[in-house]
Amino acid sequence: MFRPKVPTMPQPTGLVTPPAVVEPTAVVQHAPAAPAPMSVPAPTRPTVQLTPGAVIALVGGGTAVVLVVGAVLVSMLLAVAITGASVAICALVIRSLITSEAKRR
Predict the structure, then answer these.
(1) DSSP for 10-58?
(2) Which residues have a Cβ under 8 Å from the Cβ of 58 and sit 6 or more positions away?
């Protein structure tokens, strides 16, 4: 009951392929051919040419990205500063309440 039963596989169920036959090949050395003269390949991609309008668009886009990222970072810093100030004020109020309660006793 508590002994595991290991399944037995009498025959493989997958596709059986015969082993590949490797035939020996002869190594033949040839005399090295004279190297061909090196030619400069023609450029396959066109050269990028920036027009004045494209330059203005790139500068405007970059400026917009910098302004947006800066605004997000400044707003995150402001949120952290406001949270820290409010926690500090709460700590001062709680400390004041505790000390005034201790003086009354």
Answers:
(1) SS--S---PPPPPPP------PPPPPPPP-PPPPSSPPP---HHHHHHH
(2) 50
pTM confidence score: 0.45
Query: CA-to-CA distance for 105 and 101, rounded, in angstroms?
Result: 7
What one-character DSSP code corresponds to residue 105?
Answer: -
- Cα separation, 85 vs 76, whole angstroms: 14
Backbone angles phi, psi at 26, to 5 degrees: -90, 140
Q: Give the tens place of pLDDT for each residue, 13-62.
A: 666 676 677 777 777 777 666 666 667 666 677 777 889 899 999 999 99
Burial letters 7-42, b for 16+ CB under 10 A, else e: eeeeeeeeeeeeeeeeeeeeeeeeeeeeeeeeeeee
Q: Report long-range pairs for 17-21 (Cβ below 8 Å, ≥24 apart).
A: none
Retrieve residue 32's tokens.
């090295």
